Amino acid sequence: MNTINMKNLGLSGSLLDEARSFRDLYVGRVLSQSKDLYRVVTERGEVAAEVSGKFRFDAVTPSDYPAVGDFVMVDRDDDEGGNAVIHRLLRRKSLFVRRAAGTAKEEQVVAANVDTVFVCMALGGDYNLRRVERYLGLAWSSGAVPVVVLTKADLCRDLSERLSRLEAVAPGVAVVVTSSLTDDGWQALRSYLGPGRTVAFIGSSGVGKSTLINRLVGRDLLATGEVRDGDGRGRHTTTRRELVVLAGGGVVIDTPGMRELALERADLVRTFADIDDLATQCRFRDCTHKGEPGCAVARAVADGLLDPGRLAGYRKLCKEALYEGLHSRQVEAEKMAMMFGTKGAMKEARRSAREKNRRRQGY
Ligand SMILES: Nc1nc2c(ncn2[C@@H]2O[C@H](COP(=O)(O)OP(=O)(O)OP(=O)(O)O)[C@@H](O)[C@H]2O)c(=O)[nH]1
Ligand SMILES: [Zn+2]
Question: What is the model's pTM?
Answer without folding.
Answer: 0.72
